[in-house]
Design goal:
single chain; 270 residues; alpha/beta; Rossmann fold; 5-stranded mixed sheet; 31% helix; binds NADP nicotinamide-adenine-dinucleotide phosphate
Amino acid sequence: MARPYAEVIGDPIGHTKSPLIHSFWLEALGIDAEYRATHVTPDALPGYFATRAADPDWRGCNITVPHKVAALAHVEDREDVRTSIGAINTVIRAEDGALTGTNTDASGFAAPLAGLDLAAKPVTVIGAGGAARAVLFALSDMAVGPVTLFNRDVAKGADLLSSFGLEGQALPIGEAVPPSALLVNATSLGMTGQPPLALDLSALPAEAVVYDIVYAPLETGLLAAARGRGLVGIDGLEMLIGQAAVAFRLFFGAEPPRDRDDELRRRLLA
Ligand code: NAP
């Protein structure tokens, strides 16, 4: 048998940070395996999964744009991701060649919130796209209180709240932010090249946590405003590293060395 490997697939694929994260952990743990980036176009997706299912060295893949929904057609959906988050970001190959899909974004998002008790607490979320679906799935698992969901497309926001069984209301961005224990930005606003997310955070209590899943730039205007008010801020690299950690365990059966996150973060930002 040749060297085991996993990979991230997408179209385009040049922007991905996943190989850096997984290679850092493989090297740190001395595991003789590879994690690479592979360009796969939509037309090539069925052939890609057929070839990889027959390759015993292939442990699985992460999936990025535009394949997160289309990939569901080629794998077993044992966790019923199709009717919850609606998209997969990870595929695992069993020894018999069976492929199973999962989504590690929700647990990656939840990981840095593990020490907080958010049950029945009010939460604000901005966004109703693919990442927001993973965020709302995780929040419904935490049994949070009412969710105020701000989105440009308000009807889409209201649909998401009801599909995740969350109490609350959907509002257009620009309405007043209510008092919340946690505020999450899950839009692309604030990302390099996108308009900023300008919110008035004055209604948030002093113990509120502000979580921006955007990671380019790392210190968004929203996080700077939160820290300026003395609030705890969580940046997008926490979720990025968190979702990769769940996938790494599935691919390589080892615990990633999270005590080396500072070094990993420096490399990701270099
Ligand atoms: P998406 O599915 O395209 O959703 C984009 C969201 O942003 C929607 O809510 C959209 O509103 C909103 N939006 C976009 N442009 C806007 C504008 N000009 N004004 C107001 N709202 C706007 O994208 P996604 O996959 O959810 O990704 C969203 C962000 O999360 C990206 O920055 C991505 O890099 C980041 N992300 C981070 C991680 C991580 O691990 N840290 C993981 C996944 C994603 P409408 O619904 O009204 O169009």
